[in-house]
Specification:
Blueprint (H helix, E strand, L loop, with lengths): L2 H25 L58 H12 L5 E5 L6 H14 L3 E6 L3 H14 L4 H9 L4 H9 L5 E6 L4 H4 L20 E6 L4 H4 L3 E5 L5 H11 L6 H10 L4 H11 L9 H15 L10 H14 L4 H9 L15 H7 L5 H13 L4 E2 L11 E2 L2 H8 L4 H16 L6 H17 L9 H21 L4 H12 L8 H16 L3 H18 L5 H16 L3 H18 L5 H16 L3 H18 L5 H16 L3 H18 L5 H16 L3 H18 L5 H16 L3 H18 L5 H16 L3 H18 L5 H17 L1
Parallel strand pairs: 1-4, 1-5, 2-3, 3-4
Antiparallel strand pairs: 6-7
Helix pairs in contact: 1-4, 1-5, 2-3, 4-6, 9-10, 9-11, 10-12, 13-17, 14-16, 14-18, 15-16, 15-18, 18-19, 18-20, 19-20, 20-21, 20-22, 21-22, 22-23, 22-24, 23-24, 24-25, 24-26, 25-26, 26-27, 26-28, 27-28, 28-29, 28-30, 29-30, 30-31, 30-32, 31-32, 32-33, 32-34, 33-34, 34-35, 34-36, 35-36
Length: 826
């Protein structure tokens, strides 16, 4: 039996003994107090002589008061250093010296240190000369015994006490008659988690007329896992105890095991433990053992991934074990008829801890279906029960609206995950799939919701394979596919690749030809495209296409989409004739299978027109883009991302024909729209700003263009990467603006850096690499270094003739510039 259980048992026995002794004394003849025994009784000592009134039908008798049971003494010997609660303790200490008629409730998740705060207050009270009484509120009979024992010790009539125990008198009235006669005391009800234990008969705790009452005679402090304010009533001040921040948690760890590492390492472990005081204490106790396998903060942190139960199961009883303390709360809820709370917590613990689980995942109808259709009222009651004991907390939306989210503490989630089953994991997977099915990946209004769902999708990828069957794996995989697409549209171009790669690792057991696996591989390939790794993307797409042709067939929409994207990659690699042929081939099949207005059909037409324009047929491309734009406006709307993409490319074809003022108007309108729809830092918004700046350069407003391009580049380097295709293209345009202002040496330096990066990223034959080389040659001419310029142009002409053909406008411009330079040198 551990110390806590022993104290509780002793409290019960001694409380009962106190009552019996008092009753016996009342029935004996009066016995004078021994000399030197004044009969004073403090919370931990004595009080002045007093007459104890007898029952109404008995004559007054003088009874020697009995000292309070020893368990009413606060166990302050176990108190260690208290961190992060100084402000709360100061407020409580003020109420101790100046009671305001309200009782104080320290409420929160099990393990947040509520009892520690109460002990610290008790220690201060004792040092200030106040009387302190401490009762355990975990068991009804024990609590009554302790409190009636206190009443007797304070001078209550033994007859009244006996009547209270027999049910003939309100026991709380017996106690409070004596408490109100005292002053300057502290009474702590510790671990009052079960409201039935501290309630009396039909009197609810919040009524303020039972064991816990408002008073100005002293201070009542209650520690409880019940955080719901309405339960405690209007006379209570409820102080929710949260977890400690990383720095404060580090101080706790360093106090316990100062040799286990640095403050930074302790802070990292504190953050992983979510700042939960119980978890920090158990980590410190473990690390302090000479037999511990892990002896440092860092090794303990690493060990949590594989040995969570072993590292956090130290404790003498379930309440003191991180892995079991919350099961105590769940057991209590089950005993109250809310057994559904346990399964709800298991499901929600599959999602990302410490991250708000918002309304898409908290749909009551979906939760009901996932839990076997218990009904939305029962689901709501289960969620409210978890909130009431701190196992869930409200998220950033602190009210009780339907769209409010909840948060699961990381250790609560980790402990709950130890009990996962296939059914629970499948329910979580169904929740995430249901949420993603209700969102559109191409709708800007949904992008913020997608970003909030993203960490929870990623969290499902960390579930143990043992709790995921094939259906659950496939469900998660399809949710990942949708999330990847939404993240890409929202401008988070790097995130989908990591997500798809993690999902592919988890879904291996589905087999390489499973449709969901192929869809994940497609998302990984598209992520490579958006990050400018075109060769890698092409190879992956060709492998996917071969598998889809065998497993899905040539006319399956997914197969057609892969063919379309493979043609797009050819465009990005400047293999323009090959790209045009591939686009026309897939377009024929899309028109037959999907129809002319299908978004995928329109997407292929879009990339076909870019291949046409890049091959030097801008007028043909412009006419085609105007047709696609009209159709996309009709089918998708004027501000759909696809529609705006076509508008962007239309502006480029107008500019390529020398109509720069008209192109500037197009890009100015596009920038305004994309800022409003996408936001100022979206890659597509930055792309439109860069294109407008290039047109401004062509119009001769070099300083204006330079300022805009520097602003764009500053964001692109941060949002994308310094070597991203968009950033490199913007740097080339910046060099043109710099050269236009006569700063040729600066422009040359910029261009040489750009060329080096583009050769590394895109290859020597890419048209953007050629554009930078062409600008470098013109800059060398302006610097008077004609021979170097001629050598650059000759080399570039050979590349462009081979890759673009002799009649391409870029080839023609290169040849004419070289001819002009040769004439100048003659």
């Amino acid at each position: 039996m551990d110390l806590g259980m022993a104290l509780t048992l002793i409290g019960t026995l001694t409380g009962v003994a106190s009552v019996l002794v008092a009753v016996v004394q009342m029935r004996q003849s009066p016995t004078p107090a021994l000399e030197g025994e004044s009969g004073r009784v403090h919370g931990n000592g004595t009080d002045e002589d007093r007459r104890i009134p007898a029952s109404d039908d008995s004559p007054p008798r003088t009874v020697t008061p009995v000292r309070p049971a020893s368990t009413l003494c606060a166990p302050t010997g176990r108190l260690g250093e208290v961190h992060g609660r100084e402000e709360l303790l100061a407020r409580l200490n003020h109420r101790l010296s100046a009671p305001d008629g309200r009782f104080q409730v320290l409420a929160g998740l099990g393990g947040t240190g509520k009892t520690t705060v109460a002990l610290a207050l008790a220690d201060r009270a004792e040092s200030q000369g106040a009387r302190v009484w401490w009762v355990s509120a975990t068991e009804k009979a024990s609590l009554m015994g302790s409190l009636l024992g206190l009443a007797v010790a304070l001078g209550a009539s033994p007859n009244h006490v006996e009547e209270a125990r027999a049910g003939a008198r309100d026991p709380a009235d017996v106690l409070w008659e004596r408490l109100e006669a005292e002053s300057g005391w502290l009474l702590v009800f510790d671990n009052a988690d079960d409201m039935d234990v501290i309630a009396l008969g039909d009197t609810a705790v919040g009524d303020g007329s039972g064991w816990i009452r408002p008073t100005r005679a002293g201070l009542i402090v209650v520690t409880s896992r019940v955080v719901e304010r309405r339960v405690w009533g209007r006379h209570a001040d409820v102080h929710p105890l949260g977890c400690l921040d990383a720095a404060t948690g580090a101080r706790v760890l360093l106090d316990l095991v100062p040799w286990a590492g640095t403050a930074a390492e302790a802070g990292a472990l504190s953050q992983r433990l979510g700042g939960l005081p119980l978890g920090l204490r158990q980590a410190g106790v473990y690390l302090g053992s000479p037999f511990a396998a892990e002896r440092s903060f860092t090794s303990y942190l690493e060990g949590l991934n594989d040995r969570f139960p072993a590292l956090l199961s130290a404790g003498s009883e379930p309440r003191s074990e991180v892995t079991q303390t919350w099961e105590v709360s769940l057991d209590a809820l089950a005993a109250q008829g809310r057994a559904q709370a346990r399964r709800l917590l298991r499901v929600l613990s599959c999602f990302a801890p410490s991250v708000e689980i918002g309304s898409p995942l908290m749909d009551l109808n979906t939760l009901s279906e996932c839990l076997g259709r218990p009904g939305t009222a029962e689901v709501r009651a289960g969620l409210e029960a978890l909130l009431s004991v701190g196992l869930l907390e409200w998220g950033a939306t602190p009210n009780r609206r339907a769209d409010a989210g909840v948060v699961v503490h990381p250790l609560v989630a980790a402990a709950s995950r130890q009990h996962l089953t296939v059914q629970v994991a499948s329910a979580a997977a169904s929740l995430i799939r249901s949420a993603t099915d209700r969102l559109r990946h191409d709708n800007p209004e949904d992008w913020s919701v997608w970003l909030s769902v993203f960490p929870h999708v990623r969290s499902l990828l960390t579930l143990s394979p043992a709790v995921l069957d094939d259906d659950g794996l496939a469900t998660i995989a399809w949710a990942v596919v949708q999330t990847c697409s939404a993240l890409r549209w929202s401008g988070a171009w790097a995130a989908p690749e990591e997500l798809a790669r993690s999902a592919l690792h988890q879904a291996e057991q589905l087999g390489p030809d499973h449709e969901a696996v192929l869809a994940l591989r497609y998302q990984r390939a598209i992520s490579a495209v958006y990050q400018g790794r075109y060769g890698e993307a092409e190879s992956e797409l060709q492998d996917i296409l071969r598998a889809q042709l065998c497993s899905l067939g040539p006319d399956h929409p997914a197969t057609l989409t892969t063919r379309h994207e493979a043609a797009h990659v050819l465009v990005e690699q400047s293999r323009l004739a090959e790209a045009e042929a591939a686009c026309r081939a897939v377009l024929r099949d899309q028109l037959r299978v999907l129809g002319p207005d299908h978004p995928e059909t329109l997407a292929t037409r879009h990339w076909l027109l870019r291949a046409v324009g890049e091959q030097g047929r801008p007028a043909e491309a412009e006419a085609g883009y105007r047709e696609v734009l009209e159709t996309r406006i009709r089918v998708l709307g004027p501000e759909h991302p696809y529609t705006l993409m076509t508008y962007n490319n239309l502006g480029l074809q107008i500019a390529h024909q020398g109509r720069f003022a008209e192109a500037e108007a197009v890009f100015s309108e596009l920038v305004d729209t994309r800022v409003r729809v996408f936001g100022p830092q979206h890659p597509y918004t930055l792309q439109a700003r860069s294109n407008r700046a290039w047109v401004v350069t062509c119009l001769g407003r070099y300083a204006e263009a330079e300022g805009e391009l520097r602003s764009v580049l500053d964001i692109e380097r941060r949002v994308l990467s310094p070597d991203h295709t968009n950033a490199l293209d913007a740097r080339c345009e910046l060099a043109q603006a710099i050269a236009g202002q006569g700063r040729y040496e600066e422009a040359e330096s910029e261009l040489r850096e750009v060329i080096e990066a583009e050769i590394r990223v895109l290859g020597p034959d890419h048209h953007l690499t050629g554009d930078a080389r062409y600008e470098l040659a013109l800059t060398l001419v302006r610097l008077g270094r004609h021979q170097e310029a001629a050598e650059e142009l000759r080399s570039l002409l050979a590349v462009r003739t081979r890759t673009l053909g002799t009649g391409h406008p870029r080839t023609v411009a290169t040849r004419e510039s070289l001819f002009s330079l040769d004439l100048r040198d003659v």
